[in-house]
Amino acid sequence: MRHLSSLLIILVTFSGAVSQSPKPDSVASISSYAKTIERLTINKSKRRIFADISSGYENGPEDWKEFRSEKERKKAETDGNMNQTAAVWTKNGKPVVAKLALTSPSGDWMHFVNYYYREDGTLAKIQAQLNTFYGNVSVVREQYFQSSGKVIRSTTRYLDLHTRKPVRKPKDFFDQEVPVHKTVSELPFAKLL
């Protein structure tokens, strides 16, 4: 009888643990996945570096190029404006993290946008931070996506640009939209991957 009751306790415990595991398209599971693949970005030598080498002015055609190193990209940057740069890390040969840095030609704002992709190329999460002198704020956003592309959670926080303390959305604030690339193939430099 003891063995039967012990077996019953084990089965109940196991079934409870299984039923509590997060669903693949849940915020918890996406957050865990993003943390796991973020660890890849620690190794800077494993990243691929890209930049838009066009004139840097909005409304013109983009001309993305891959660089062998950050040193090579910085040397090219001294020759002209590079208002869009990106670093990409892969897992099993598939791009899973893309970190873009976007800025205006005047340098009034800087937008850091991190994309976390599943190995099938679908977007799982965006983590973005806009630092702008228009309103002296940092806008921190997170968006979580189901594999179908549907947004399941979106958050926005406003922080003082200098103190990093939370603030209300300023009235004289000039926002920059977060570019959403729902698949790896939608990234502006995808043809180079």
Could you explain the architecture of this structure?
By secondary structure, the protein is of the alpha+beta class. The chain has one domain (24-192). 20% of the residues lie in helices and 34% in strands. The protein contains three helices and eight strands; from the N terminus they run ααββαββββββ. It has helices at residues 2-19, 27-38, 70-78, and strands at residues 48-52, 64-67, 84-91, 94-103, 109-117, 123-132, 137-145, 151-160. It has an eight-stranded antiparallel β-sheet with strand order 2-1-3-4-5-6-7-8. A hairpin with a 5-residue loop joins β5 and β6 (123-132). The termini are far apart.
Q: Could you tell me the mean pLDDT?
A: 87
Say how many strands there are.
8
Fraction of helical residues = 10-25%
Could you give the order of the helices and strands?
HHEEHEEEEEE
Our measurement of the CA-to-CA distance between the termini, rounded to an integer number of angstroms, reads: 62 Å
Summed up, the helix count is 3
Largest sheet: 8 strands, antiparallel
Which radius of gyration do the C-alpha atoms yield? 21 Å
State the domain count. 1
- Which strand order do you get reading across the main beta sheet? 2-1-3-4-5-6-7-8
- Overall shape: it is globular
Give a quick precis of the structure.
By secondary structure, the chain is an alpha+beta fold. The chain has 3 helices and 8 strands; from the N terminus they run H-H-E-E-H-E-E-E-E-E-E.
